[in-house]
From TrEMBL:
It comes from the Bacteria. Keywords: Coiled coil, Cytoplasm, GTP-binding, Initiation factor, Nucleotide-binding, Protein biosynthesis. Residues 682-739 form a coiled coil. It comes from Thermodesulfatator indicus (strain DSM 15286 / JCM 11887 / CIR29812). This is Translation initiation factor IF-2.
């Protein structure tokens, strides 16, 4: 016969070997230590004993609760119902506590919560009597195949349950049949139930004690019910077979239950909370140990399988959590990209090698360099490969530029910036040369050595003037077309021997459109045929009245060639500048304008900048139009390297990424990266604007455009074939002027529409009107490029009409109210969820669904709103005309009364005639 070691058995039974050893020793077996062995038979007995103890523990635990015992007793004594119920509650609480503490489940089926006296006898699971200890069990039926129907244990009569004899029977039965103990108990219960009066309220069933459920249960119960009490109480034969020695041992062991319970509690307290699966598994193991019926074992196994699946699914879900990143990556895995990002920067942002990114690009079929800028969309694709998300950040140019105008304290006087303009060959270049020669610095330092588009001269009195040394019109108009305004003063050169010519007039137009004061230089006075007075009178006709004639235009008579009157001219310029009170803040980051630019073969993009504010220093990062850079080198007109340059200084700058355009702004930025962002932002905006292909101005959009700016002026460049027509047109257009809007003919002339006309129109947001004239091919191209509208006419009436219409658009439209129809309310109905509906008769005009209405009561307006619903014979209709009845619902208004008038009206915009 094989032997079983105690510690092996302890492991099998899930208890401490030491405890088991103690228990076995107390059972009377001759064991020395926990490594002693037992015969199979002895081991089986121990197993049974343990199972019994476990059951007993449960029972003992229940015993701890004071209520159960009393309850059962009282109830069987037919105590008042109220008390019984209270006790039941107490029992339930005690049970719950026990369950929590011990976690030992001795039975499989849970009892129904609600007690049903009749049913319980036959159907409820077996319940151990709340107060009964093993010793108290009463067994009056002994046959193993006898009733084992689950029956409420509470029904066990205490006096019988306490019978020691019954206990012996249970002990004897256990090894032989499935759940003999339960059988015994059940028998007792059944019997008791038969005896007890039916009206006795059954105890709420507590936890079923064990799974045993013999097949014939119900039928047998019935049989038992028929049996007399005496018979049922007869001692079963089998339990009697148990040896007396064993019985004694059991008694003894039951005494040890307290100790066991304490340990069990301790174990349960220290253990982690068991999962549902673990609990079921434990139950199942116990059932196996108790040799529960196969069908119940199978049921439990199924339950276990279900719990296992459930646990698996739950674990899967838990695992899914960290798998979310593809859709919602962690916050730190985001990269902000504004207009674009350089490959190198992207690599840095992701903490990867630039070469890895370049490789990735190659895989995606694109070749890039480390300094290449990529758009946010492309960056997003590549970043995703590295687990990063690109967040496209919108920047506002203003945000990055962060400009605050200087305070008056910061402002200091600055030199004027002057542009020389005039008709061809009237001596502009000669004058500029003459002025240059007046420069005291040049004389000392060897003169201006290079052309940089602008230069600064220092006069004998120490004052300075900056001249823009580029073809006047072009520089001036181009810059103005780009919204730039660098020039403070225009020197208009007019040859004394030639007088006012076309370009003289154009120059005046430009200067005026820009609001720049003009200082007239009557040149070539050295010439014998020079007639300055004639020039003055011609110019006076154009509005440039000399001071000595009572006007406010400063005139200088000079000879650029002979260098006569140059100083006087410059004095006048300074005088004019003084009147303008030109000031700038020198102590802040520089801002300026590009006046000239080119791509130098050896030095790359270079540009001449006129500093308008602040001081520019070498190394400063900057943005200029849609390009940017860092001041690599700064030169003056003499080719000297400068470390810094203040307001009104013209400087040639090296360090642009690309060639900027004349008229572009030049702004020093905190860092080059920000400068790049602004440049890229602007470039995108420019592309968008170009894509939109919107004309700068047109008659059609005049109204909209001017309404926004509240400008009540239509600027026109007017060109005609003959002087007579031109004058007639000028008169007609001028006459269109009203108090609210006027036509401003910024230029009028004879002949073809020229580039200069286009540039002026572009710079001034004007339209060009050609009467019987056409633009030159260059002008046409320029107009397309500059988005300037040119309108052609050959009938004066038509031209006037169109302009009139456009100007009408400039006026605020008048709003007029027109009555659409009137209806009389003849009945009212209250419609659930809709409100009051008026039964109306349309007296005049019509009512339209959605129309604006007024509700009049005795000619007083009660309500103004909208028709919410309009029906005829329950059908929704769009309109109802006079002579018909209809149902009208008003929007958010229900106080409609019979006799009210509903007046529908509409608001109409009336274009005003000039
Ligand atoms: N007698 C005389 N001739 C002058 C004077 N100023 C300029 N000239 C001559 O006039 C001619 C034209 O002079 P520029 O300075 O080239 O005139 P401009 O306005 O610059 O001409 P464009 O560049 O073609 O617009 C030259 O031959 C000059 O020598 C002057 O004060 N007196």
């Amino acid at each position: 016969m094989s032997k079983v070691r105690i510690y092996d058995l302890a492991r099998e039974l899930g208890i401490q070997a030491k405890d088991l050893y103690e228990r076995i020793r107390k059972m009377g077996y001759d064991v020395k230590s926990h490594s002693s062995t037992l015969s199979e038979e002895e081991a089986a007995a121990v197993r049974q004993e343990l199972a019994f103890i476990k059951n007993s523990v449960k029972t003992e635990e229940k015993k701890e609760a004071p209520a159960p015992k009393k309850v059962v007793v009282r109830r069987h004594r037919e105590e008042p119902k109220e008390e019984t119920e209270k006790a039941e509650e107490a029992t339930e609480t005690a049970e719950a506590q026990q369950k929590k503490k011990l976690k030992i489940k001795l039975v499989i089926k849970k009892p129904p919560k609600k007690e049903e006296p009749e049913k319980e006898v036959a159907e409820t699971p077996k319940e151990e009597p709340q107060k009964a200890t093993p010793e108290e069990f009463v067994a009056k039926e002994t046959k193993p195949e006898e009733p084992t129907e689950e029956i409420s244990a509470e029904k066990l009569p205490p006096e019988e349950a306490r019978s020691q004899e019954a206990k012996k029977e249970i002990s004897e039965e256990r090894p032989k049949v499935r759940g003999p103990k339960v059988v015994a108990r059940t028998v007792g219960v059944v019997k008791r139930e038969v005896i007890e009066p039916k009206k006795a309220k059954p105890e709420r069933p507590s936890k079923p004690e064990r799974p045993a459920k013999p097949k014939k249960g119900r039928r047998v119960v019935t049989e038992f019910e028929r049996r007399p009490k005496k018979e049922a109480a007869a001692p079963p034969p089998e339990p009697q077979k148990e040896p007396e020695k064993k019985k004694k041992k059991r008694k003894k062991h039951v005494v040890e239950l307290d100790e066991f319970r304490k340990k069990a509690k301790k174990k349960a307290a220290g253990a982690r909370p068991k999962s549902e699966r673990e609990e079921i598994l434990e139950e199942l193991e116990l059932m196996r140990e108790l040799e529960a019926p196969t069908e119940e074992l199978l049921a439990k196994e199924e339950e276990l399988a279900r719990a296992t699946e459930k646990e698996k699914a739950a674990k899967k879900e838990e695992k899914k959590e960290p798998e979310r990143p593809p859709t919602a990556p962690p916050k730190e895995k985001k990269i902000k990209v504004y207009e674009s990002i350089q490959v190198g920067e992207l690599a840095k942002a992701m903490g990867v090698k630039a070469s890895d990114i370049i490789k990735k690009f190659m895989e995606l079929g694109t070749m890039v360099t480390i300094n290449q800028s990529i758009d946010p969309e492309t960056a997003a694709i590549v970043a995703a490969e590295f687990g990063y998300e690109v967040e496209q950040a919108a920047i506002e140019e203003e945000q990055l530029l962060e400009y605050t105008p200087p305070s008056p304290d910061e402002l200091k006087p600055r030199p004027p910036v002057v542009t020389v303009m005039g008709h061809v060959d009237h001596g502009k270049t000669t004058l500029l040369d003459a002025i240059r020669e007046t420069d005291v610095v040049s004389r000392e330092a060897g003169g201006i050595t290079q052309h940089i588009g602008a230069y600064k001269v220092k006069l004998k009195n120490g004052q300075e003037i900056t001249f823009i040394d580029t073809p006047g019109h072009e520089a001036f108009t181009h810059m103005r077309a780009r919204g730039a305004q660098v020039t403070d003063i225009v020197i208009l050169v007019v040859a004394a021997d030639d007088g006012v010519m076309d370009q003289t007039k154009e120059a005046i137009d430009h200067a005026r459109a820009a609001g720049v004061p003009i200082v007239v230089a009557i040149n070539k006075i050295d010439k014998p045929e020079a007639n300055p007075e004639r020039v003055k009178s011609e110019l006076a006709e154009l509005g440039l009245v000399p001071e000595d004639w009572g006007g406010d235009t400063l005139y200088a008579e000079i000879s650029a060639k002979k260098k006569i009157g140059i100083d006087d001219l410059l004095e006048l310029v300074l005088l004019q500048a003084e009147m303008l009170e030109l000031k700038a803040a020198p102590d802040r980051p520089a801002r300026g304008r590009i006046v000239e630019s080119r791509l130098d073969k050896g030095r790359g993009p270079v540009a001449t900048v006129i500093i308008q504010e602040g001081t520019l220093k070498e190394g400063d990062p900057f943005v200029a139009g849609i390009t940017y850079g860092r001041v690599r080198a700064m030169l003056d007109e003499r080719g000297r390297r400068l470390k810094e340059a203040g307001p009104a200084s013209p400087v040639e700058i090296l360090g642009f990424h690309e060639v900027p355009q004349a008229g572009d702004d030049f702004i020093v930025m905190p860092d080059e990266q920000k400068a790049r962002k602004v440049a890229e932002y602007r470039a995108r905006k420019q592309r968008e604007a170009e894509a939109a292909k919107e004309t700068k101005m047109s008659l059609e959009k005049l109204f909209e455009k001017l309404k926004e700016g509240e400008i009540k002026e239509l600027k026109v460049v007017l060109k005609a074939d003959v002087q007579g027509t031109l004058e007639a047109l000028q008169d007609s257009l001028q006459k269109l002027a009203t108090d609210e809007v006027r036509v401003n003919i910024i230029r009028s002339g004879i002949g073809a529409i020229t580039e200069s006309d286009i540039m002026l129109a572009s710079a001034s947001d004007a339209i060009v009107i050609g009467f019987n004239v056409r633009p030159t091919s260059q002008a046409k191209r320029l107009a397309e490029q500059e988005k300037v509208e040119i309108r052609f006419y050959d009938v004066i009436y038509k031209l006037i009409e169109d302009v009139k219409k456009a100007m009408s658009g400039l006026l605020e439209p008048e709003i007029e109210e027109r009555i659409m129809g009137v209806a009389e309310v003849r009945a009212t109905f209250k419609v659930p969820k809709v409100g009051t509906v008026a039964g109306c008769y349309v007296k005049e005009g019509k009512l339209e669904r959605g129309a604006k209405v007024r509700l009049l009561r005795d000619n007083v307006v009660i309500y103004t709103g909208k028709i919410a619903s309009l029906k005829r014979f329950k059908e929704d209709v769009k309109e109802v005309v006079a002579g018909y009845e209809c149902g009208v619902g008003l929007e958010n208004f229900n106080d409609i009364k019979v006799g009210d008038l509903i007046e529908a009206f509409e608001l109409v915009e009336i274009k005003r005639e000039l």
